[in-house]
C-alpha cells in the first residue's frame, strides 16, 4: 500500500511539475520573441528609420517614416469608424433594446468577430476599392474599423450592464431623462472598461496585415488625404522580410520592434487601467 | 435589463396616436433611434458581407458545384480550380498546431488554475494575454529568420534520422512546409487555449476538488480525474476557438508554408492554405472565374470559422451553466 | 463627455493636417523583374521634378489586373497582355491599352549548390527536365554532361518558382515551351502556371530570398537580383549551340533581330532568339499605359516620364545590369507616345 501511495505521489509531483514547465514554456516564448526583436531590431533603429523614406531597391539606407505615419493614420480612421458604431450600438443593447434585437445584434457582432481578416480584406476591396477605382487609406481604415466593432460592442455592453441598477434608478428618480442618465451617469461609471475595450481592439488591429494588402496597398512616398494608397508598418515588414536584401531585413526587424512595442504598450496600459477599476468584470 | 418600466413620460396606449414627429421631440426617442441605427448597422454590415461573399463566388459555384471541394488541380491558365489542396493545407497545419498547442496549453492552464498562487497565476496570465496580442506578421518575421533555418538545419534532419521511416517525416528538408507552419501556428493559438481553459478550470466548484481529495486522491489525481473532466466541455470549447483562430491565420502561414498547392502525406512538404492563397493571388487574379474562385475559398473559410466558433461558444456556455450548478452527489 | 470632445478635436486636427493636398501622386503596380531599375528611375524622376510615381512591385499578373480594374494608373509586365486580356481591358474601360518597352532584362537560372568550383552550364533539356521534376538530383547526367569536370553533389534539387502571377514566369515558361515539347504540353506558358514541382516564393525578391536560404535550390530570377545578392547563376545553351551567360552584350544581341521587325503594339517575344552570342532567356519589359486619361496632369507626367526613361534614363540601366533599348525601338516608341490621349 505504501509503495503504491508513494508512486501515486511521485506521479502527482511529476505531472504537476510538468504543468509548470508548460506554463513556463508558454510565457518564455513571449520573452523570447521580445528578446529577439530587441536584439535584431534594436541595432537597426536609428534616426533615419523614423525620418526617411524608403530608398530605391538595392540601395541601403532609408527608413520607414511614411509607414509609421501611415499606420497612425489607418488606426485613427479605424477608431473613427469602429468605435462609434461599437459604442453607440452597445448603448442600444444595454439600455434600449428588446431581447430579440439584442440577440440579433450580438449574433451579428460575434459573426463579424470570427471572420478571418483576409476575408474582411476581400469585403473592403469589393466595397471600397473596385467601385472607386483606387486603393485608399479610407478602404484600409474601414477594414480595420470593421474588425474593431465586435470587440468594442461586446465589451462596452458588458461594462454598461455591470453598472449597478441603483445608479441608474437614482438618476431617473432625480428626474433625468434616459439619455442624460446614460451619458452622465452610466458611461462615466463604466468608462474605464470602455476605454480598455477600445484600447484592446486598437491593439488587435494595429498588427493586421492581410486586410491592408488589398485596400491600403502601399506607397513609397508620403500619402496625402484619405484617397491615396498608404504605407503601413505591417505591410512593410512583410515585404521586407521575404526579400533578399540584408538592409531590408534589418529594417524589417526594426519595424517589428516598433510595431510590437506599440501594441504591447497599448495592451499593458489597457490592462492597468482595467485593474485599477473596481467593480467591473473582466470579459 | 432595459428599464422601460421606469420610462414614464412616454406615450401610453391612449395616446398611441401621437404622431411620430412629436415623439421625436422627446430626446430619449432620438437617442433610441440613433443608437438603434448604430446597432442595426452592425447587422447590416454583416449581412452585406455574407451577401458579397455569396454573390461574388457565383461563377465557380455554378461551374464546379461540389466538385470544387474535391478537385486537386489549381490551374489559372486552364481555368480549372479546385479547393482540395488548400483545404488540406489549412486542416493539416491547424491539426499539427493543435497537436502541439493542446497538451502544452492545457498543462499550462492546469498549472495556472490549480497550482499557482493567485498572484503568480494572474501575472502569468497577464503575460500570456500579451502573447495573444502579438500580430501574425511578427510571427511570420520570426518564422522566416529563426524557425525555418532551425527546422531545415536541426529539427527536420533530426526527425528524419530518428523517425524517417514514417511517411509523415519523409522527403527533403526544405525548412518551409506544413510542419513549420504548424509549429508557428501552435505558438499563436496556445494563449487562447490557456486563457479559456484556465477560466473554465477556475469555475469548477470547489466541492468537486475537495470531495476527491477527501477520498484520498493525490493533487494530480483530483485535478486530472475530477476537475478536468468536469471542465471538459469548456476545454473542448477552447480548442475549437483556437482552431477557428488557426484556420484564418494568413501572414505567418504564407511566410513559412512554401506556397505550393500540394497534397502530400509528408509534413516536410511545402503546401498552401486557403488564407495564404487568397493573400498571394487575390490582387492578380485576372479573369472573373479566377477571382471568384478565390472569393469562394474565402466563403469556405468563413463558413468553417463560423461553424467552429459557434460550436466553441456552445461548449463554453454549457460548461458555464454546469459550473454554476450546486453540489451533485 | 469631455473625453469625447477631446477625441473629436484631435480627430479634426489630424484630418486637417493630413488633408492638405500635396503634389500629384501617380500609382502604378506590376512586374518585380524591372523593379530595381524602375525604383531608381522613379526616384531620379522625383528628384528632378518632384512628381511622385508610386510603384508597387506586386508581380506582372497583379499589374495587369489592377490596371484593367482601374485601381492603378498604369501597369507593368514582362509578359505582354494576351489578346483576351486586351479585349477584357477594352470592354471594361472603353479604350485600349498600350505597351511601352522600357528596358531589356534576362531571366537567369540561379542556384545554391554548396562546393561548386565553377558556374554551371544548362542545356534547354536540363532546365525543362529540372522544372518538370524529371531531373531530381544535381549529379544527373543531363546536368553533368554539360559541366565536365565540375563536382556535382548527389543532392536532391529543390526547385523554386513564383507563387504569384509573374512576368518572369511568363518569360521562363515561354522559353521552356519553345525548347521542350513536353513542357509545352504539360505546363505551357503564362504568368501563373501549374508547376509540377517546387516551392513558391513571392516576387523576384521572394524567390531570391528562398534560393539564398535553401541549399541545393534552383530558381529563375532577373539578372540583377542574382547579381545584387551575389548568388551564382548559370549559362544557358542558346539556339546557336553556345553556352551563354546573361550580360549586357548577350541580352542586347537577343533583342537585335526582333527590333528590326518590331510590331506596332510592341508585343514581342525574344526568348531563344537567333544570334551567336544571344542569351536565350531575355525579354523586354513593358509599361502598360491606357490610351486615354481623364486626368491630364497624370497623363502628361507619365508621358514625360516614359520619354525620359527610354532616352536619358537608359544610362541608369547598365549599372543595374539591364540592357538598353535598341535605338529603333526607342524611335518607334517616341512616336507611339502620341497615341496616349
Q: Which terms would index this structure?
A:
A: 283 residues, mainly alpha, MetI-like fold, flat, disordered C terminus, B: mainly alpha, two-stranded antiparallel sheet
Structural notes for this entry:
The complex is a heterotrimer of chains A (283), B (329) and C (341). With 283 residues, chain A is mainly alpha-helical. Chain A has a single domain, classed as MetI-like (MetI-like fold). Helix content of chain A is 76%, strand content 0%. Chain B is mainly alpha-helical. Chain B folds into two domains: 2-56, no CATH class; 82-328, MetI-like fold, CATH 1.10.3720. Chain B contains 13 helices and two strands; from the N terminus they run H-H-H-E-E-H-H-H-H-H-H-H-H-H-H. Chain B has helices at residues 20-24, 27-55, 58-64, 84-115, 118-133, 136-163, 178-202, 206-214, 219-230, 232-248, 251-256, 274-281, 288-323, and strands spanning 74-75, 80-81. Chain C is an alpha/beta fold and 341 residues long. Chain C has 13 helices and eleven strands. In chain C, strand 1, helix 2 and strand 2 (52-57) form a beta-alpha-beta unit. The chains are: A mainly alpha (283), B mainly alpha (329), C alpha/beta (341). Chains in contact: A-B, A-C, B-C. At the A-B interface, helix 1, helix 3, helix 4, helix 5 and helix 6 of A face helix 2, helix 4, helix 5, helix 6 and helix 7 of B.
Amino acid at each position: 500500500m505504501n509503495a503504491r501511495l508513494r508512486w501515486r505521489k511521485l506521479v502527482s509531483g511529476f505531472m504537476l511539475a510538468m504543468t509548470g514547465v508548460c506554463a513556463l514554456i508558454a510565457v518564455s516564448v513571449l520573452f523570447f520573441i521580445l528578446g529577439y526583436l530587441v536584439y535584431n531590431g534594436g541595432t537597426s533603429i536609428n534616426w533615419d528609420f523614423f525620418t526617411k523614406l524608403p530608398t530605391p531597391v538595392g540601395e541601403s539606407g532609408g527608413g520607414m517614416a511614411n509607414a509609421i505615419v501611415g499606420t497612425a493614420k489607418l488606426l485613427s480612421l479605424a477608431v473613427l469608424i469602429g468605435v462609434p458604431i461599437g459604442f453607440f450600438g452597445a448603448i442600444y443593447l444595454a439600455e434600449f433594446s428588446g431581447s430579440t434585437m439584442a440577440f440579433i445584434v450580438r449574433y451579428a457582432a460575434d459573426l463579424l468577430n470570427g471572420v478571418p481578416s483576409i476575408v474582411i480584406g476581400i469585403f473592403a476591396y469589393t466595397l471600397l476599392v473596385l467601385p472607386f477605382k483606387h486603393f485608399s487609406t479610407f478602404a484600409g481604415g474601414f477594414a480595420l474599423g470593421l474588425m474593431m466593432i465586435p470587440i468594442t460592442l461586446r465589451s462596452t455592453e458588458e461594462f454598461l450592464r455591470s453598472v449597478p441598477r441603483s445608479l441608474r434608478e437614482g438618476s431617473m428618480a432625480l428626474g433625468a431623462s434616459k439619455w442624460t442618465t446614460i451619458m452622465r451617469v452610466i458611461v462615466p461609471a463604466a468608462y474605464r472598461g470602455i476605454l480598455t475595450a477600445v484600447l484592446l481592439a486598437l491593439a488587435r488591429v494595429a498588427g493586421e496585415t492581410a486586410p491592408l494588402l488589398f485596400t491600403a496597398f502601399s506607397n513609397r512616398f508620403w500619402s496625402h488625404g484619405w484617397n491615396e494608397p498608404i504605407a503601413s508598418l505591417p505591410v512593410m515588414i512583410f515585404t521586407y522580410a521575404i526579400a533578399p536584401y540584408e538592409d531590408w531585413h534589418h529594417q524589417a526587424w526594426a519595424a517589428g520592434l516598433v510595431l510590437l512595442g506599440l501594441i504591447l504598450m497599448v495592451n499593458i496600459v489597457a490592462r492597468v487601467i482595467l485593474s485599477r477599476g473596481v467593480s467591473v468584470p473582466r470579459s | 435589463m432595459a428599464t422601460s418600466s421606469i420610462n414614464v413620460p412616454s406615450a401610453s396606449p391612449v395616446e398611441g396616436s401621437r404622431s411620430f414627429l412629436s415623439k421625436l421631440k422627446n430626446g430619449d426617442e432620438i437617442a433610441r433611434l440613433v443608437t438603434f441605427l448604430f446597432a442595426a448597422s452592425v447587422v447590416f454590415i454583416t449581412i452585406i458581407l455574407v451577401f458579397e461573399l455569396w454573390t461574388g463566388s457565383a461563377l465557380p459555384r455554378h461551374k464546379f458545384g461540389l466538385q470544387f471541394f474535391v478537385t486537386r488541380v489549381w490551374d489559372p491558365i486552364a481555368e480549372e480550380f479546385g479547393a482540395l489542396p488548400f483545404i488540406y493545407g489549412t486542416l493539416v497545419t491547424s491539426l499539427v498546431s493543435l497537436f502541439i498547442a493542446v497538451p502544452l496549453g492545457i498543462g499550462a492552464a492546469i498549472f495556472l488554475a490549480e497550482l499557482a498562487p493567485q498572484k503568480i497565476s494572474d501575472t502569468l496570465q497577464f503575460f500570456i494575454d500579451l502573447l495573444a496580442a502579438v500580430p501574425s506578421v511578427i510571427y511570420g518575421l520570426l518564422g522566416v529568420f529563426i524557425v525555418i533555418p532551425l527546422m531545415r538545419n536541426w529539427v527536420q534532419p533530426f526527425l528524419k534520422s530518428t523517425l524517417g521511416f514514417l511517411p509523415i517525416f519523409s522527403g527533403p528538408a526544405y525548412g518551409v512546409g506544413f510542419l513549420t507552419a504548424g509549429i508557428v501556428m501552435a505558438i499563436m493559438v496556445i494563449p487562447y487555449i490557456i486563457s479559456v481553459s484556465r477560466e473554465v478550470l477556475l469555475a469548477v466548484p470547489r466541492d468537486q476538488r475537495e470531495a476527491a481529495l477527501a477520498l484520498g486522491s493525490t493533487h494530480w489525481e483530483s485535478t486530472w480525474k475530477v476537475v478536468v473532466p468536469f471542465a471538459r466541455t469548456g476545454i473542448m470549447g477552447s480548442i475549437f476557438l483556437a482552431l477557428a483562430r488557426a484556420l484564418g491565420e494568413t501572414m505567418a502561414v504564407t511566410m513559412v508554408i512554401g506556397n505550393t498547392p500540394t497534397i502530400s502525406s509528408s509534413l516536410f512538404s511545402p503546401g498552401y492554405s486557403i488564407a495564404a492563397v487568397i493573400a498571394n493571388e487575390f490582387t492578380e487574379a485576372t479573369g472573373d472565374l479566377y477571382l471568384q474562385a478565390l472569393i469562394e475559398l474565402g466563403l469556405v473559410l468563413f463558413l468553417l470559422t463560423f461553424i467552429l466558433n459557434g460550436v466553441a461558444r456552445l461548449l463554453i456556455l454549457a460548461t458555464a451553466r454546469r459550473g454554476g450548478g450546486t453540489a451533485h452527489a | 463627455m469631455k473625453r469625447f470632445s477631446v477625441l473629436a478635436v484631435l480627430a479634426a486636427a489630424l484630418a486637417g493636417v493630413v488633408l492638405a493636398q500635396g503634389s500629384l501622386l501617380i500609382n502604378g503596380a506590376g512586374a518585380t523583374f524591372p523593379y530595381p531599375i524602375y525604383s531608381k528611375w522613379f526616384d531620379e524622376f522625383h528628384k528632378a521634378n518632384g512628381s511622385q510615381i508610386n510603384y508597387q512591385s506586386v508581380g506582372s499578373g497583379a499589374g495587369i489586373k489592377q490596371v484593367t480594374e482601374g485601381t492603378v494608373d498604369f501597369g507593368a509586365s514582362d509578359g505582354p497582355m494576351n489578346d483576351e486580356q486586351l479585349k477584357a481591358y477594352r470592354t471594361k474601360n472603353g479604350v485600349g491599352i498600350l505597351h511601352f518597352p522600357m528596358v531589356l532584362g534576362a531571366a537567369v537560372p540561379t542556384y545554391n549548390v554548396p562546393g561548386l568550383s565553377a558556374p554551371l552550364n544548362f542545356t534547354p533539356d536540363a532546365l525543362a527536365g529540372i522544372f518538370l521534376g524529371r531531373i531530381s538530383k544535381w549529379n544527373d547526367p543531363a546536368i553533368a554532361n554539360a559541366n565536365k569536370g565540375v563536382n556535382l553533389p548527389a543532392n536532391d534539387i529543390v526547385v523554386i518558382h513564383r507563387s504569384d502571377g509573374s512576368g518572369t514566369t511568363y518569360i521562363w515558361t515561354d522559353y521552356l515551351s519553345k525548347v521542350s515539347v513536353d513542357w509545352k504540353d504539360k505546363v505551357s506558358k503564362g504568368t501563373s502556371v501549374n508547376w509540377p514541382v517546387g516551392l513558391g516564393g513571392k516576387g523576384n525578391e521572394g524567390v531570391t530570398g528562398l534560393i539564398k536560404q535553401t541549399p541545393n535550390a534552383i530558381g529563375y530570377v532577373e539578372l540583377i537580383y542574382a547579381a545584387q545578392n551575389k548568388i551564382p547563376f548559370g549559362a544557358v545553351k542558346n539556339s546557336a549551340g553556345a553556352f551563354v551567360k546573361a550580360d549586357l552584350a548577350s541580352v542586347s544581341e537577343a533583342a537585335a533581330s526582333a527590333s528590326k521587325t518590331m510590331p506596332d503594339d510592341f508585343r514581342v517575344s525574344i526568348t531563344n532568339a537567333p544570334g551567336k552570342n544571344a542569351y536565350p532567356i531575355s525579354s523586354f519589359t513593358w509599361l502598360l499605359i491606357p490610351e486615354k486619361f481623364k486626368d491630364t496632369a497624370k497623363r502628361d507626367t507619365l508621358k514625360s516620364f516614359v520619354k525620359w526613361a527610354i532616352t536619358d534614363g537608359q544610362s541608369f540601366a547598365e549599372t543595374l545590369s539591364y540592357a538598353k533599348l535598341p535605338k529603333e525601338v526607342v524611335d518607334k516608341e517616341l512616336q507611339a507616345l502620341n497615341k496616349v490621349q
